[in-house]
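Re: the 242-residue chain
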Amino acid sequence: MLDSVGPTPLYPGADNGAITVQEWVYRQLKERILTGQFVPGRSVTLRGIASMLEVSPTPVREALRRLASERALEVHGNRRVSVPTMSRRKFDDLCAVRVSLETLAAERAMPHIDAEHLERLRRLDAEVDDAIEQGDVNRYLQRHREFHFSIYQLGSAEVLMPLIESVWMQFSPFLRLVISHIGVDYIVDRHADTLNALERQDYAALRFAIEADVREGLGSLTESEWRDLDAATSQPGEEPAR
């Protein structure tokens, strides 16, 4: 199911020039996945997505194939797609992969961080805190991602960023589900520690801050909370909201 939301902007850093309809559809769906607007385990139809985006089924079909190849979606035989459900083992694996990729990307970005970049990161962190205080989940997920990606893109972006984005697409819908059903208590970030490490050019502290940012919060989910989340994803699927 998709949450009922307004028009979604392209992902941070996207080219604002002319793009194909297929690419536009891909970016729109990717942004919705990254902000958790697809509920894990709930299926939607190809035709429903086409109607929502006001395009023909053909570019939707091609975009869905791309997203399935990135493991963000599962394509079913009845022309339905869904975000894969999350298991504890898969969650642990995704966290481990995130730590490996993101600490490496942050380390490679470190030499390129200057005062201007630090100031932009501080502004983003302030927007993250404000979104949490206001209970604006969409804005929180967007700014939290932008904070991290603004660092990683300064490093080995060509190789690492597609891998990092693929993992975030598998992780983000579950994060949204947790926030929606359990609350903001599980929103833990180490952005201040990350900023301090970047300012000091302290590689060890940066690795620690990034790993803690990934692992803390959701890593403390209880068995009862996992059962509640499993129940939330086992309800019947719905069409996308218009």
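The CA atoms of residues 13 and 150 lie 9 Å apart.
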